[in-house]
Amino acid sequence: MPKNAIFIMLDSFQFNYMGCYGNKWMKTPNIDRLAKEAMVFDNAYTEGLPTIPCRRAMMTGRYTLPSKGWGPLDPDDTTIADMLWGKGVHTGLIFDTPPMRLPKYGYQRSFYDVIYGQHGHELDYEYYRHDAVKNDMKYEDYLDQNIIDNFRKDPAFEPYIDHNIDEINCILRSRQNWKNEEESMHAAVLVNKAKAWLEERTKDKEHPFFLWFDCFDPHEPFDPTSVWENFPCPYDPDYKGKEMFLPAMGPAKHYTEEQLHHVRMLWAEKMTLVDKWVGKLLDKVKELGLWDNTMIILCADHGHPTGHGEHGHGIVRKVHPWPYEELAHIPLIVRMPGVGEGKRNASFVQSVDITPTILDWLQTHQEAAHYGKHVLDSSVSNVDFQGFSLLPLIRGEKEKLRDFAIAGFYGYSWSIIRDDYSFIHWIKKANAETYEETMEMVNIMYDFGGGAGGKFSKSSQTEEMWSCTPGDIVLPAEDQLFDRKTDPFQLKNIIKEKPEVAKELLQQLKLYMAELKAS
Q: Which of 195, 212, 292, 192 lies closest to 10, judged by CA?
């Protein structure tokens, strides 16, 4: 039987909202079931944040943080679909992640089958902007007045409330056609398309397949079934406020604690629904007789800031380039049939390890396909990767692959995470005090909503940030140091108490970043 691989990406699925990662109140029975038959990685981190840099790293096996931010695939980026071209592996991309299909971005490149879910997610709700309103739904029913008033008083974020209202109105236009969960929820629609694709693939008994399943749920809007079918959120049934499925980007201080908690509970409900549909996808894999010869990798690209403290360090949604634990730490579950089942691994693994792992499992020929040389330029081999295959960890051949992980936002922040400490180096100002500063920050982080072709992110780094003379490190006052053993969610900055440790980590971080940039 040919070996197959399925990669399941669940956007914004917070690692500590899963039962298999220790959560006691969340219901994720299907992912937990997968975890019992797989290896669970406890220290998986996305290096380049957020959505697009992460996927570029996962697709190419190369770090993005030193050199590329949010932007299109470049001609010199070689993706897993490029590498499998012409090698007898049928590739499929089934996705509803709008940033992957932004104009000229090219993340569908080289996949044989490309199937899109449905319109309506963030960055794709514009599709419904001009639709006629068929019912009496209006933004005022989904956004509390105190939040509008608080944003109006904040010069750095005042325009964001108007943007938020516009977002809500577009989403309401898309959701006015809601039928039921199976026909209207994004994750459900996508899973059903993936099930049909798998049924078709099983007709070919000779060739392996690789499926990249990229589900934008549970990304915001946090609009689970309860919002559209008018029943209480099961995780917060006594809440009396409005169903704020899309909070405005900005400071958490503009919300009450009750409102922030309910936003998180809507998000939690959506995660539970995504788990339900992932379970249906896994059941189909078993039903089709693919379970014993198919590797399954499940992960997220990042978490999400939704409040104060460990929930978001004081922000709601990704409005600042802050690579704290709640954003950078991701779930990663790898099922290799018959090996490593029910085990955990605490070593550091990163988003760049995805493609090397899948290719190692598929064991494709390393030489480039004859007609693919114009795409690949030369033969692709493991020396082109900066990531590592995880199979030696799963087989028990190695205990760890690296001594630390890195994370950050290109041009704004670098972070290093070790067993003992984590450290964040701020390249640029981490806080916005005016609307102009806020807009500059967001444009660089998101490439002007994906419409600038990478122009904003490519111009955001300077040569000064790379300077690193051993023994002569200058420690910026704004940088942050945390004790991972006593403060895993990075709430108490101890840089003043341990400046020498901070200098050590800054030097280690800069040297490693320079090494990656040169390789």
A: 212
d(CA 469, CA 471): 6
Residues 124 and 98: beta-carbon distance below 8 Å? yes
- The alpha-carbon radius of gyration of the chain (Å, integer) is 22
| Contact (CB, 8 A) for 269 and 227 | no
DSSP, res 131: P
400 three-state secondary structure: coil
**pLDDT single digits (tens) 196-230:** 999 999 999 999 999 999 999 999 999 999 999 99
Cis peptide before 221 (omega within 30 of 0): yes
Tokens for 297, please give them. 């990798």
Taking only the tens place, the pLDDT of each residue in 304-359 is: 999 999 999 999 999 888 999 999 999 999 999 999 999 999 999 999 999 999 99
Of 78, 77, 72, 70, nearest to 50 (Cα)?
A: 70
The alpha carbon of 66 is separated from its chain's Cα centroid by a whole number of angstroms, namely 18
Closest CA to 100 of 81, 84, 76: 81
Tokens representing 479?
């940088």
In angstroms, the CA 144 to CA 244 distance is 8
| φ/ψ of residue 182, rounded to 5 | -65, -35
| Inter-helix orientation angle 158-175/145-152, to 10° | 150
Report the sign of the C-alpha dihedral through residues 479, 251, 45, 414, in that order.
negative
Buried b (16+ CB within 10 A) or exposed e, 404-422: bbbbbbbbbbbbbbeeebb
